[in-house]
Write a structure and sequence with these properties.
The protein is of the alpha+beta class. It has a seven-stranded mixed barrel with strand order 1-2-6-7-5-4-3. A hairpin with a 4-residue loop joins strand 4 and strand 5. Helix 5 packs across helix 7.
């Protein structure tokens, strides 16, 4: 495992991160906010930045607790556990990304993950990924389709959910905006947090069914269709 202390600027503000598994990162690494990153932030809870050439996308996750309002929770969870014990969101997402890749699903290439040990920096978790400039958010694509197109989209979506289930995992936050759709209509998984299916085979279906939300699948009709297709494919 390679690790190096790197200077990284966010909209011109410098920070220092320990970067693990660095692969093809420019030096210096300058990250900026754009209209593209604002669109990503509008549908998620993380911060996003791009390199100046638009080639790399950075996903930043801030501390869960406020250091001044909840100092004990912040120190125990955000500082000790996530930073010093290396349980950051970025590291967990990298591990999940590798699981999806081994299952045969498409993900962006990861250029490394970073961790800030500076207690004054609340944005401790940093994931550096390939920016798929040819792709659009899955939710945006789904909403623009006619009904037949939506049914085909849902079928491809369910096929990949089953592929992941056959590898022994289920996605923690299953919705269309955790996908990008590339120029050829292929699915690219960009939020890769997964968990293992239960050991007992009889518990696999209930775990999959719980991952299907009416809201995230754009309505009860599409959830019912997803359940029908997943039962058939499994």
């Amino acid at each position: 495992m390679t690790v190096a202390l790197r200077n990284i600027s966010f909209n011109g503000r410098p920070h220092r991160y320990w970067v693990f598994h660095a692969d093809g990162l420019p030096a210096p690494l300058r990250l900026v906010s754009t209209h593209t990153t604002a669109a990503f932030e509008a549908v998620g809870s993380s911060r996003f930045f791009l390199t100046e050439d638009g080639r790399l996308l950075a996903k930043v996750v801030s501390d869960k607790f406020d250091k001044r309002r909840a100092p004990l929770d912040w120190f125990g969870r955000d500082y000790l556990e996530k930073r010093w014990l290396l349980q950051s969101n970025a590291r967990k997402e990298l591990l999940s990304l590798r699981i999806l890749q081994r299952a045969g699903l498409t993900t962006p290439h990861c250029h490394g993950w970073g961790l800030s040990l500076n207690p004054s920096n609340p944005s401790a978790s940093l994931l550096l990924m390939e920016h798929r400039q040819d792709a659009r958010p899955g939710g945006e694509v789904f909403d623009a389709l006619d009904e037949q197109g939506r049914l085909r989209f849902l079928e491809r979506f369910c096929e990949e959910v089953v592929t992941l289930a056959h590898a022994g995992y289920v996605h923690r936050d299953l919705h269309y905006n955790n996908l990008l759709i590339d120029a050829n209509g292929g699915l690219v998984w960009i939020d890769t947090h997964v968990r293992r299916l239960p050991r007992k085979r009889a518990d696999h279906w209930p775990a999959l069914e719980r991952s299907l939300s009416v809201t995230k699948l754009r309505g009860a009709k599409y959830r019912a269709l997803a359940i029908e297709q997943l039962r058939r494919l499994l």
